[in-house]
Design goal:
The structure is a homotrimer. The first copy, chain A, is globular and about 60 Å long. Chain A is an alpha/beta fold. Chain A has helices spanning 29-43, 70-73, 77-95, 112-119, 144-154, 156-165, 171-176, 189-201, 205-217, 226-234, 239-249, and strands spanning 5-10, 13-18, 50-55, 60-62, 101-105, 108-110, 122-126, 130-132, 168-170, 182-184. A 6-stranded mixed β-sheet of chain A has the order 1-2-3-5-7-10, sandwiched between helices. In chain A, a hairpin with a 2-residue loop joins β1 and β2 (13-18). In chain A, α1 (29-43) packs parallel to α3 (77-95) and α5 (144-154) crosses α6 (156-165). The first copy, chain A, has 2 domains: 2-201, Alpha-Beta Complex (2-enoyl-CoA Hydratase, Chain A, domain 1), CATH 3.90.226; 205-249. Chain A binds chain B through residues 67-68, 70-71, 74-77, 79-81, 84, 135-144, 146-148, 151, 155-161, 163-167, 221, and chain B through 100, 121-122, 152-153, 155, 178, 181, 196, 199-200, 202-204, 206-208, 210-212, 214-215, 217-219, 221, 224, 228-230, 232-238, 240-249, 254, 256.
């Protein structure tokens, strides 16, 4: 099972690779679960500053769920509920990762593959990559947590357009729809992704973590407690904040320690 | 009154036509009501898979409410409340239609005409079509359900820009603002709309209906019940789901029965 | 302190100018407070129909908070809480201004400067203007009301991209991200802003005020009361409404009195 997913760390940037290149990195039930386990472990890793999620090879990020498994793993209500639970835990684990995340997208990024990518903070893709959620062609539907995530990213009207038409479309249309952060030439995808990861990892860690946390918290309509509200000011006591504004005034590069 | 609105069915696609071409399809109180009645009836029709809403002729979808009626039908608070109730029921009937809906837009699509179009799931328009909500030029305002629908589609800032400036603008700007799904050459509007309707109607009916239902339900901040949450998995027991994934594995076209 | 901020009125359009050109209009604590005071006073001014907010000179709207003050004014939790309270009151005063507001943006519009601009109803900028919120470079974070406002404008994913990458980018990217309403040639910024202000000021005042009020109210998930819901119809009793639809039918320009 270890071969299904690769995890590499280089300095403070981790890379998670969906590793079923012979299946274009289709998501088997085991692979869905493995991605969730990996993201939870990386979230707890204090040395990580940014996580890149990608598919093995250049042909595909992922075409989504491995449909050849459905006859044995997702053929009725009870199996669909279990399968959905695994998917949703994994999607939540990406969304809730304390560190910023980037989906590196080459080639096919469709269905559950696109859903995975949508849980990352940024999505950087090559010009020839392809997108869509053509699940009404096979009678599948997105459960509530999935359609909620898609609506959060592209709005209700665009989410419904994608689901009702079930088209597969190119990178330019994906950008226009708000599905991807940016489109770069195919040959520059890795370079651009790791330049962005480097830039993010060089920011003050508490700034990135609190911005992610606050943006996620605001998905919940429950009013903020006084303690939650104050968290934005508490960071003024952090060493990295003191270092940050002083370095700015002294016109030097700050040296953030993560505390 | 029947002449006000035309309803045609061709196979599983229904077309609803605002039919006051001599008035550019301006929405009289009677026409507002007739659209709502038609959409409710079509929603209940089990043979329909997609509904197209259009204006008669090529000059206009609709310029909005028929203002020449206001002196007799909307001249004070009580009349405005009744008039608004009819508008809002019709807007809700389009939004809540179980079948996917497409607004086919040629020419003028302004004010209440644009509001009608915005309740459809997709909006496909010709290059020379024109948009806007210039109601502050005549002292009219959008009631809460109307401005809520506009904000849902284009966001709060763009909704206010449209309402505060009261400009009428072209198709490219409407696309950029998120008001329309796509812009096509004028001569191809019908072809593109019915190709999209065909594509949508060929999807599994329960996928389209549940995606619409779920996207609408998420407008309500009330937490989902366990039963609602499970509805996404219950469809795994549907015949069309079984047919769908098996046809995919067997590399053949699925034959959906709507059950 | 009066020199910090200039307030001019020409007919029914007011202009508020951040006036620290030697500091590129950086927002000192005193300037944050002065903007809030000015916007509250203008909101109460019955003769005003539109407010333009700008920076002195052509080099900058504002680069944000004056960081050279942080050592004395924002060096710990308690100071950050007080400083944040002033910022948030000012941001609220712009958002809640009864009259439509336009940010006129030339040059640098970054950090707290961009946050100020984002509270206006429209943002019109020159082609060479620059945007971004590179606060993770100095360990600062956006408190909840700030990140909430940014998400309301550009969505959660784009807000996080801006905050996590901390890049400074140009006007075209700002438009694409939904940060600005429109981009015009540098030499036409003033002309375009005042043409828009004139257009807005010529609309029925109650239409503009109620549209702003309704759009703001909908940020609050609390259900509308019956009285609130009816406010959209009550305006049918206003003189300006009667004047508006009659002028339209009589094909003449309406003469709005603001009542």
């Amino acid at each position: 099972m270890t071969d299904l997913l690769l995890i590499d760390k280089a300095d403070d940037i981790a890379t998670v690779t969906l590793n079923r290149p012979q299946k274009m990195n289709a998501l088997s039930k085991a692979l869905w679960a493995a991605v969730g386990d990996a993201m939870q472990a990386l979230s707890d890793d204090e040395d990580v500053r940014c996580v890149v999620l990608r598919g093995a090879g250049d042909r595909a990020f992922s075409p989504g769920a491995d449909i050849t498994e459905f006859e044995s793993e997702r053929a009725n209500f009870e199996q669909a509920r279990v399968y959905g639970g695994i998917m949703h835990r994994t999607m939540g684990a990406i969304r809730d990762c304390r560190h910023p995340t980037i989906a590196m997208i080459k080639g096919v990024c469709v269905g559950g593959g696109l859903e995975l990518a949508c849980m990352c903070d940024l999505r950087i893709c090559g010009e020839s990559s392809r997108f869509g959620v053509p699940i009404n062609r096979i009678g599948v539907i997105m459960a509530y947590p999935e359609i909620e995530a898609l609506i959060d990213l592209v709005g209700r009207a665009t989410a419904l357009e994608i689901l009702l038409e079930g088209r597969v479309f190119g990178a330019a249309e994906a950008k226009e729809k708000g599905l991807v952060t940016r489109v770069v030439p195919d040959a520059q995808v890795e370079e651009d992704v790791y330049a962005s990861a480097r830039r993010i990892a060089d920011g003050a860690p508490h700034s990135n973590r609190l911005h992610k946390k606050f943006a996620r918290r605001l998905l919940d309509p429950t009013p903020l407690s006084a303690e939650e509200f104050s968290e934005g000011f508490a960071s003024a006591n952090f060493e990295d904040y003191q270092e940050g504004y002083r370095a700015f005034v002294e016109k030097r590069k700050p040296d953030f320690k993560g505390r």
